[in-house]
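Dear colleague,

Thank you for sharing your sequence with our group. We've completed the structure prediction you requested, and as agreed, I am returning the results in plain text so they can be pasted directly into your records. Please verify that the sequence below matches your submission; if there's any discrepancy, let me know and we will rerun it promptly.
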Amino acid sequence: MITEYEIATIIEDQQIKEEVSALKKTFLKAESPLYKMNNHDFLSLILLTPHVGVALSNGSVSLFEELSLNKKARKFSRGGTFLRKDPVVHAMNLLINSYDKWEDTFLTALKSIMYQTFDKEHLLLKEEDTNLPSNEFHRLVMKTPYIFVKYLKAFFLTEEDAITVERKINAVEYEKILFVGKKLELEQVAIFKMFCATFDVK
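Please find the predicted structure tokens below.
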């Protein structure tokens, strides 16, 4: 899982900082004009967008999903929220309430930010990877940029889930993962295709 410290490193990039700040101003002006939050915490919110989308794909966020999202939000946040509401949790509730309005904007920002943190060419599907057996997934993970593996976990899994382990999922949630993958231009990324194959769709 991406840590608070890795998010702090990502937001140090000047171009990313400017993109995050611009979207933060637009979002908060529309959803909560009096609310203030720092760029680190708003980047944390952007990173939570895919997980929020999957949670909402069934029509509403269940109690289990809410607890999972809140736990992840608190881990991402810059900290210092003892005895007060976590700013990422608060902003995430704003996003949940207006998700359809902001989904495309947030995923576009996420794609831009993500591809500034590693070389996308290293992820493109190679011919020899097109028909890898499932037991080769572990090997492919080892060859993949470390931060991208962390992104996949942050976007789609709980902290306890392992990326290579099969898990059950309903068809609506699975389609949402594929939708997010398309928005983030992951269709030709071998590790994403093999990650999707680990789901047992019901």
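Summary note from our side: The chain has ten helices and two strands.

Kind regards,
the structure core
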